[in-house]
Amino acid sequence: MTFSLGIVGAGQFAGQFARLFHAHPGVGDVYVTDLLPERAEKLVAAEGLAGTFPSYEAMLASGAVDAVGVFTQRWTHGPLVLQGLGAGKHVYSAVPMAVSAEEIAAIVEAVEATGLTYMMGETSHYHPATVHARDRIAEGAFGRVFYAEGDYVHDMDLGFYDAYRYSGGERWKETASFPPLLYPTHAVGGVLGAWRTRAVSVSAIGVTDHRGDGVFDRSVSMFDNDVSNATALFEVAGGGAFRTNEFRRVGYPSHLRESRFRFFGTEASLEQLATVALWQDKNGVEDITGLLEPGPSLSPDDPSLAHIAPELRPAFTSGSAPVHDRSRLPEVYAEMENGHEGSHHFLADDFVRAVTDRTPPPVNAWVAARYTLPGIVAHASARQGGARLAIPDFGEPPES
């Protein structure tokens, strides 16, 4: 049995997931809508999808889709998710979950009231470093974890200017100033995705931008934001702390690795940099870079695979790391492009499984709130000069 899916927003990121959902054996028809109809039509033609709708409202009212995937601009997710849930649709949402505590609370309440599936597509939950740390924490190899770090270091010069121009049109600078701490999940999600705890308070500091190019200019910004780099220190339940960095002006090769993580326990630690990862204990250091390094993510007919035997090519195109367990994934994914350190295949499959089996996905509404809300509160802390603020919590998902 399959379900139908509507893609909302046909921008640069949506095409990868439209392709994965369309290929999944649990998904039937896939439709698309976008504020720019030509983008929706182009995606449908490129991927052989079922068709387009002139608006999100028309898609929801049509009866043609059982679920929606929200891939619109980051500050629009909350209202669109609520609209989808209100129409009785399961919802997959790109990050962040929302940009206010009120929107997050409303989503959690709607999911609990309706019993519908909600999943936030947080890539760092599936990053090799997160997967490995999660496994080692579960087996007690760290001893007691008491501190961790998660960084999302993505310089504006390395792709963000082009992305905002594409999505924002002539007034793109108004939205390119999106506050870094309101996009926290690629840092927070990797930490909490391994260390099964929650943030209870935060103190954060923002760094005012000095580039002078009209981005991160409060007189231009629709978010009244002039901060391009920010650091937050979180207290966690049960004792301990973690720190995150959200940097948009930084001398760092974010095209090699955007998110990186460190975990410290009483018996061992794990540290990851752009091109190396180390496991350390009281006796020495082990280089585990190879264990956490995703393979290439290439199209099966990519010229660079010409020297690889056809029957071996799936292993070279999956974009996964040795720590990833691909045994549960659809066979067709072995020959499909992946992304964000091997996370895309797992994201698509987890949502399909959750809808089909009616079980909470790993990054369900309650987990998504714990990955998103700490950044929202951290942003408020930074606006208050680093004041330490409490972080609300919505608890655990109901037992299915």
Brief description of this entry?
This protein is α/β, with parallel strands linked by helices and about 400 residues long. Helices cover about 30% and strands about 20% of the residues. It has helices spanning about 15-25, 35-45, 55-60, 75-85, 100-115, 130-140, 155-170, 170-175, 185-190, 290, 315, 345-355, 365-385; strands at about 5-10, 25-35, 50, 65-70, 90-95, 120, 145-155, 200-210, 225-235, 240-245, 260-265, 270, 275-280, 285, 390.
Please work out how many helical segments DSSP would assign: 13
Helix-strand category = alpha/beta
Arithmetic mean pLDDT: 94
What's the CATH topology label of the largest domain? Answer: Dihydrodipicolinate Reductase, domain 2
Radius of gyration: 21 Å
Global shape? globular
Strand order across the largest sheet: 14-13-12-11-7-10-9-8-15
Count structural domains.
2
Beta-strand percent range: 15-25%
* Second-tier CATH architecture of the largest domain: 2-Layer Sandwich
Largest sheet, strands/sense/barrel: 9 strands, mixed
Task: Give the ordered list of helices and strands.
Answer: EHEHEHEHEHEHEHHHEEEEEEEHHHHE
